[in-house]
Design brief:
This protein has 107 residues and is of the alpha+beta class. The protein contains one helix and eight strands; from the N terminus they run H-E-E-E-E-E-E-E-E. It has a domain of 74 residues: Lipocalin (Beta Barrel), CATH 2.40.128.200. This is Membrane-bound c-type lysozyme inhibitor.
């Protein structure tokens, strides 16, 4: 019996890991923006209160911060700020992606 239990435990743990990844993907929305400079794909995870996107060939993951209007996410260097169907990306208070418009918004 102990041998069977030892053999089954790794499969149970792997199943839990797969389930958590599956739930994480379900809770993430993929948002497609068209900015003045280039397109931007943003993954929004409301349960983790974060967004992620690729900029300068690196994955940027930003946590939700305080905002008087709209939604603001930051990592201390980059800021993704969205309001309605538009967004802007800043790097150290300088706009790097401007006039980003959400493509095919769901209403």
């Amino acid at each position: 019996m102990k041998k069977l239990l030892i053999a089954v435990i790794p499969f149970m743990l792997a199943g839990c890991s797969y389930y958590n990844q599956f739930v994480e993907r379900i809770q993430t929305d993929k948002l497609e923006y068209q900015c003045d400079e280039k397109p931007l794909t943003v993954n929004l995870n409301n349960s983790r209160e974060e967004v992620s996107f690729i900029y300068d060939n690196q994955l940027r993951t930003l946590k939700q911060g305080l905002s008087a209007s709209g939604a603001r996410y930051t990592d201390g260097v980059y800021v993704f700020w969205s309001k309605g169907d538009s967004a802007t990306v800043y790097k150290r208070d300088r706009i790097v992606l401007n006039n980003c418009q959400l493509q095919n918004p769901q209403r």
